[in-house]
Design brief:
The chain has about 230 residues and is of the alpha+beta class. About 45% of the residues lie in helices and about 10% in strands. The protein contains nine helices and six strands. The strands form three sheets. Strands 1-4 form a two-stranded parallel sheet. The protein has a two-stranded antiparallel sheet with strand order 2-3. The chain has a two-stranded antiparallel ribbon with strand order 5-6. Helix 1 runs parallel beside helix 2. The longest helix has 18 residues. The protein is globular.
Length: about 230
């Protein structure tokens, strides 16, 4: 079936509308069933963003920042200097370009495309444990910082990277810490059912530096890290 994506939210424009993932959520976790079936066209009109409440713009900025961390340090710097969320057309096209380049290189997520999962392994666990009270972008922002701290702890990233990412996320109005009333064990349980799990092991996409992400990382004591 041929289909066209017409995203009307910031999050959909820069992330969900691209790449042809036709996934669905199950009670056990996010996007656990689905397939790759690319749209014939993605039509994103930034003018429709003017109809959205600020909370939805903030929600989408998580994926914009994520794309900066993955492959575009210049985009990350633009996010660092944002003073408002009124004219996002330039950010939309730049963030879409990052994802477009990645999915062209790896359409069915056999390698580098897994970098797009930055923040999502922890983030999906946080989202599920919150009963979806946290928006997707809010959960991914929290997940990015948590995973950056993991990268620091295993020596993959230099100390300070997590704080740098957190500072930019705060600038755009996103949370950066797991809410204290959220059950960490529920998050861990959800993470063990993550769709990126392979061979019985949870595999992370972790930031090395701004513009550089390493994929397929196995951390033996990730559960202990999540409880700290």
């Amino acid at each position: 079936v041929s289909w066209v994506a017409v995203p009307t939210s910031l999050l959909a424009m820069v992330d969900a509308s691209m790449g042809g993932k036709t996934g669905a959520d199950l009670p056990m976790g996010k996007n656990l069933i689905g397939a790759f079936h690319p749209p014939r066209l993605v039509l994103a009109d930034p003018d429709v963003l003017e109809t959205l409440p600020r909370s939805e713009l903030v929600n989408g900025m998580a994926e914009v920042v994520k794309h900066g961390v993955i492959a575009d340090p210049g985009l990350f710097e633009i996010c660092r200097k944002l003073t408002n969320l009124e004219d996002l057309s330039g950010l939309v096209s730049r963030a879409m370009a990052v994802k477009g380049n990645v999915i062209e290189e790896d359409p069915s997520e056999q390698g580098v495309r897994a970098a797009l999962n930055l923040g999502h392994t922890v983030g999906h666990g946080v989202e599920l444990a919150s009963g979806f009270k946290l928006r997707h972008g809010e959960a991914v922002a929290i997940g990015m910082v948590a995973e950056a701290r993991m990268a620091e702890q295993i020596g993959l990233a230099e100390a300070g990277l997590a704080d740098e990412i957190a500072a930019v996320l705060k600038i755009v109005g996103l949370p950066t810490e797991i809410p204290p009333d959220l059950d960490r064990n529920k998050i861990i349980s959800a993470m063990t059912r993550d769709k990126k799990k392979a061979g019985g092991m949870v595999k992370f996409a972790l930031p090395v530096a701004i513009g550089d992400v390493s994929v397929g990382i196995v951390i033996e004591d990730w559960r202990k890290m999540m409880l700290n």
